[in-house]
Amino acid sequence: MKRTWWKEAVVYQVYWRSFFDSNGDGYGDLEGLIQKLDYIHDLGVDVIWLNPCYESPDKDNGYDISDYYRIMDKAGDMETFDRLLHEVHQRGMKLIMDLVVNHTSDQHPWFIESRSSKDNPKRDWYIWRDKPNNWRSYFTPSAWEYDEKTGQYYFHSFAVEQPDLNWENKEVREEIYKMMRFWLDKGIDGFRLDAIALLAKPDGFPDAENPYDIRYLTNNPGVHEYLQEMHDKVLKHYDIFTVGEVAFVSPEEGLKYVGEDRNELHTLFHFEVCDEMPTWDPIRFKQIQKRWYEGLWGKGWNSQFLNNHDHTRQVTRYGNDKQFRVESAKLLATLVHTLPGTPYIYQGEEIGMTGVKFDSIDDYNDIAMKNKYAEEVAKGRDPKEVLESLQLLSRDNSRTPMQWDDSEHAGFTTGTPWLKVNPNYKEINVKQALADPNSVYYYYKKLIQLRKQNPVMVYGTFCDLSENEPYIYAYTRELDGVRWLIVLNHCDSDNVYTLPEELSSASHHLLLGNYTDVKEEGTTLHMRPHEARIYALQ
Ligand code: NOJ
Hints:
Layout: H1 5-8, E1 11-14, H2 30-35, H3 37-43, E2 47-50, E3 54-55, E4 67-71, H4 78-90, E5 94-100, H5 109-116, E6 128-129, E7 144-147, E8 152-155, H6 170-185, E9 190-194, H7 223-233, E10 241-245, H8 251-258, E11 267-269, H9 282-296, E12 303-304, H10 314-317, H11 325-338, E13 342-346, H12 367-378, H13 383-391, H14 396-399, H15 430-435, H16 440-453, H17 456-459, E14 461-464, E15 472-479, E16 482-489, E17 495-498, H18 501-504, E18 508-513, E19 524-527, E20 532-537
Parallel strand pairs: 1-2, 1-13, 2-5, 5-9, 9-10, 10-11, 12-13
Antiparallel strand pairs: 3-4, 6-8, 7-8, 14-15, 15-16, 16-20, 17-19, 18-20
Helix pairs in contact: 8-9, 11-16, 12-13
The structure holds 1-deoxynojirimycin.
């Protein structure tokens, strides 16, 4: 298999508005990120993924761009961005930008022109029809918005304020490629491509049988031609890393985006876990891992993540954020870093930050949640019940400010934070984590170092030894005669794992575990709640 820097990398995602506020306006910013770069670098990561910081009215927190060539005021300015890039590179790290090319803001000059009249030259840059079909968007009951001025509907896969660009229009594509080159020529190291599987729309927009199953928005014919063109005209000319957000794909479909012979993207986020597994489901999770491994291995590259700015913090959603928070956070980290694919860390995950439950919808900011809340309440449902039903998966679970210390607002800002801080910041914060040698933070550091020193963790083949086990997840990674065994007890109680026959004669040597007092055992391992171990077998 071809060895590349981005397969070996560990990526750290910075949701800058919640990371560190340098000027007291309540929003994190690029200057704040610069001030905390040493913290990120010390963890050992290689790449920073920066959420969108382009000019934007911020209806969907930067995913509604109104000027691709400017930095939004809340984040800073272009001079600060350039300094950030320089400082990242100075530390030997790389920076990838989140880029949204499926849609813009309705305040983008292109859309303002497009909606101004039916014969405006930019009319065709967006998607206009006389009649809507029955599709829903991600965030609203209809994917179409009526525009009184010209008496037509425009199409939006997300919020009303995020009209979709018309990728069939060559001028649109050329403008986008030009803009991508602008950023790459500055020296950034790649893109995380937002909603990239949505670029192509089906001919004629036929009605869906079940409008609630919004798969029709993605993976339509034509998407691969667009990506191949983007690769040919832009991506292939730079030594960069690209990761696409590709929802609703099977491994077979996924391979079309990332196949090494396809000239599209390097890797993808598929959402079979985060979108389709609301709570922990061990058998399903193992099946997903196995299928994706078999589908991609040797042909294309996968990503590993269990949370991000859209998906509730992993220790809350898939682990135990109460009695075993520290053990559980470490177990989940072990999982993400030892399964095949490039691992992602979402800011705060490395100190075991948890999700939140605010008492009032007014304390939430997430447009997806707020729209859904309004839709359900309008149907006459009890508001309290609606709120409760939306809390676990609200995107604000992951968006609360980074918890730096136990001072007011967790040391995130001297002003009023744009989103409330999680009340548990007095116990869970960076200062505490750095002072405790057994913290989640230092465990991440060790995992990352292991990856640097052991190619088996990156390039080793994968074999699941525990397919039907509900609590224990045991698998091997193997490369050039080096064999590792990973055993995880994803459970609130003790469990025993007996090594299979073929491994029982090998001696095993513990490389890393999340309990300090592991006794070397024979072929029967007594695993404590949320215990994780990585062994080298000889
Ligand atoms: C996916 C992004 O991660 C999410 O935050 C955003 O709302 C949508 N795409 C729309 O751009």
